[in-house]
Amino acid sequence: MENKKKFIFLKLLAFFFIFTFLILSILTFFLLSSNLPQKYAKRYINNYIKNDLGINATFQSLKGNIYSNITIDNISCYESFEKKTKIISLKSAELNYNILKIIFKKNSILEAIDTIVLTNLNYFIIRDKNGKWLTIKKKKTNNSSPKKIENPNLYTKLFIKESTIYYKDNKGWKKSIQNAPFETTITKLDGSIIFKGNSIGEINWLGQLKNTPEKTAFTGNINLKNKNFNFFAEKINLDLNSWGPYAIPLKGFHTFSGNTLLNCHITNAKLNSTKKNRLWYNLVFEFKDSSFFTPYIDQKLSTTNGKLHITKGYINNNLLSSLKRPFSKSNKKRIIKTLKETNIIDDNFILNPKINKEKNKLTIFNKESLNK
């Protein structure tokens, strides 16, 4: 009799679990069929953008299974809440993520994202007449600043597809006033930024610079922790007639014609950085059968071949060779080696931000040392 009661109890328990499972399944089906999760997710994302990130950004719609992936359509990001200059726009952003990480790592939402696919991204790089670069600014409040986002350990893969970078400089690099803005674009831009367990993303892009015959590979990295970045590109074929006056802002160089191949390394300024002076660069122009005037002779140089180096924030052999005081080949080698060993410059010959503390320890520039 007692065994019979146990059997009945187990049947009732099994029936209860089956019934509960069916009810939950039905409720989940209707919930996913409705737009309630999307409405909640849209409200959550808007709140995260405004309060946590503190930036002025809008989007039109959101779709997808919010438990694993969503697609956000027609996104726009502006300079600030006060200034409505558009800095970024894109057709769609598809995010694939781990919902459990979002629930249990509320302070590190970025760590929950596995992949991001940005389609038809338009990024506007703009410099005003005063030399100030327009960037997306965080919201300022009277009582508190926007919540700081922890430096994440990311395993995110970010892909960009069919995108464009618009570049407009209203000031230029010469001391004299620029008559008209310099504008160019990089179109058909595809590539990725891959994070491998830290805050450093490796950049691999391929795009076509305006009026160049073929696509250019852009590589580098970006560090979300200290906001440092590096961009490299090689053998960009530039028309000197349009690029020369802007990219070679040296006094006495003018009336360019022909073509040049540009190899470049661009990074953020590590010292004395201002809103007008945010970049360091190492530019190498390779001329072949080019023509232009220089400040050294009155005649125009024609069918010119050679290299022109323009650097800022770098100490390398070319810089040492350009100084008025000559250095021997062995001294140049020794100077560069010592600068690296004392962390004055890194392996890319870029000045270290700690140079002000370290420079007094150097004796290599003493007259006695150089004459050894």
Task: Give a description of the structure.
It is a single chain. The chain has helices at residues 2-33, 36-53, 99-104, 240-247, 317-322, 329-341, 355-358, 367-370; strands at 57-63, 69-78, 86-97, 113-127, 157-169, 182-195, 200-209, 216-223, 229-239, 254-257, 259-268, 279-293, 301-312. With 372 residues, it is α+β, with helices and mostly antiparallel strands. A hairpin with a 7-residue loop joins strand 2 and strand 3 (86-97). It is globular and about 70 Å long.
* Biggest sheet layout: 13 strands, mixed
Global outline? globular
Overall mean pLDDT stands at 80
CA-CA gap between termini? 107 Å
Number of helices: 8
The amount of helix comes to 10-25%
Poorly predicted runs are 5-16, 18-34, 367-372
User: What is the number of E strands?
Assistant: 13
Which structural class do the helices and strands define? alpha+beta
Strand content: 35-45%
String of helices and strands: HHEEEHEEEEEEHEEEEHHHH
Radius of gyration: 28 Å
Structural key phrases:
372 residues; alpha+beta; 13-stranded mixed β-sheet
Write the layout of secondary structure elements.
Blueprint: H1 2-33, H2 36-53, E1 57-63, E2 69-78, E3 86-97, H3 99-104, E4 113-127, E5 157-169, E6 182-195, E7 200-209, E8 216-223, E9 229-239, H4 240-247, E10 254-257, E11 259-268, E12 279-293, E13 301-312, H5 317-322, H6 329-341, H7 355-358, H8 367-370
In short:
With 372 residues, this protein is α+β, with helices and mostly antiparallel strands. It has helices at residues 2-33, 36-53, 99-104, 240-247, 317-322, 329-341, 355-358, 367-370, and strands at residues 57-63, 69-78, 86-97, 113-127, 157-169, 182-195, 200-209, 216-223, 229-239, 254-257, 259-268, 279-293, 301-312.
